[in-house]
Amino acid sequence: PGDAAATRPLAFPKGFLWGSATASYQVEGAAKEDGRGHSIWDTFSHTQGKTHNGDTGDVADDYYHRYRDDIRLMKDLGLTVCRFSVSWSRIFPNGTGSINQQGVDFYKKMVDAMLEAGIQPYCTLYHWDLPQALQDKGGWENRDTAQAFADYAGYVASKLSDRVKHFMTTNEIRSFVELGYREGIHAPGLRLDRAKVAQIAHHAVLGHGLAVQAIRAKAASGTRVGLAENPTVTNPAIETPEHIAAAHKAFREENAMYLSVIMEGRYTDLYLKQLGADAPKFTPEELRTIASPLDFVGINVYAPTYVRADAGERGYVMITPPTSFPKMASPWLTVGPESLYWAPKLIHDLWKVKEMYITENGASSDDVVAADGHVYDTDRVMYLRNYLTHLQRAISQGVPVKGYFLWSLLDNFEWADGYSKRFGIVYVDFATQKRIPKLSSQFYADVIRRNGLG
Ligand code: PNW
């Protein structure tokens, strides 16, 4: 493979990192084993009516026991990186205080298995499974949770940074704040007003910033720190200068409570004006903490939004797509492959970020096992090929994306959708735990082998 796109069409740069992503509660199972404490997702999934079919993560992919086999699957596909998350309540069963050594040992062993397979681990510290003991004290409504998170993050980094070089503080602050505390469709299942939600979002970005500082204080030198956020991706309706300018404005404003304040250390004027008396309470020092410098920015990219230029104060308006807009199996997952061009491109243009990763991208499909025992997920292959084509376009224009983590290797516990929505490139028969690589596994292995699409 050549150095960039120059030699072959649709080639990725030499050394580009190809991986997959998972999260503790979605794959591990072993919910009651080895001293793990309760998390808000245990509570939520065991509350009647909260998840599809009453599904829970009690067993999930049983990754806790099967990780060696699953890491072998990754190796066979040619993955060189893997993103996983640590379950906070395996380490601190009560959120703070006493440590559960068995939890620490599990992640050490699991990471060592990755390293032995030639796979570099990327560790997320918070992928939504808050210890229930902290929710009992208000969860992210309570500012103390931000400090508790930093203490936990620093502790994990001190224990794993001899073998893990990359840490992400949080996964998708936007999702856990809005789905968990505003819409009530994820744990802890609350429906709070916008003033409370704004304050919760502030505590969460503050937790991120405090965790960045704690990791830097406690981890081995050379440790790299970032996050995995899912910004609203504001694609220009058409790629003309006026709509592209609108897309830049929209990206900052639509992400004002999350990525923008993290990158800029200030809430945008329009955001504060729009919230008025409902704006979060904050100090200048908190804003500096929130904007602690990062070594990399990870973004999870799925559904698009579209914007057009407008003469009003904001300079843009969001477009509601027609009902005929193409979707994957999850109703929210509209297909907009150019999102994988515009998301990193807009971030690079706005904030001059030097290192980025696509920390998630993938699709749900109504997978079926065919009579011959295979799974032919041609829609997922189409989705991935098109999104990756746009990622290649961004990289070939100098946007510094260093790696791509496909969500996900295995079908897993898809939160409120339980096991009804499959995102894996490997099919899981949940009754037997049998793994069947889908057509998309062959596609991905081929992309990795050729380091490109052409
Ligand atoms: C991400 N939405 O979640 C999460 O990081 C994963 O844990 C999850 O399994 C994956 O994407 C697939 O859903 C999202 O409603 C959940 O827009 C919901 C939305 C976006 C991302």
Automatic annotation (TrEMBL):
It comes from the Bacteria. GO terms for biological process: cellulose catabolic process. The active site is at E172, E360. One of its GO terms (cellular component) is cytosol. It catalyses: Hydrolysis of terminal, non-reducing beta-D-glucosyl residues with release of beta-D-glucose. InterPro entries: GH, GH_1_N_CS, Glyco_hydro_1, Glyco_hydro_1_AS, Glyco_hydro_1_beta-glucosidase, TAT_signal. It is an enzyme of class 3 (hydrolase). Keywords: Carbohydrate metabolism, Cellulose degradation, Glycosidase, Hydrolase, Polysaccharide degradation, Signal. Substrate binds at Q26, H127, N171, Y302, W407, E414, W415. Transmembrane segments: none annotated. GO terms for molecular function: beta-glucosidase activity. Its EC number is 3.2.1.21. PANTHER family: GLYCOSYL HYDROLASE, LP05116P. Belongs to the glycosyl hydrolase 1 family. This is Beta-glucosidase. It comes from Terriglobus albidus.
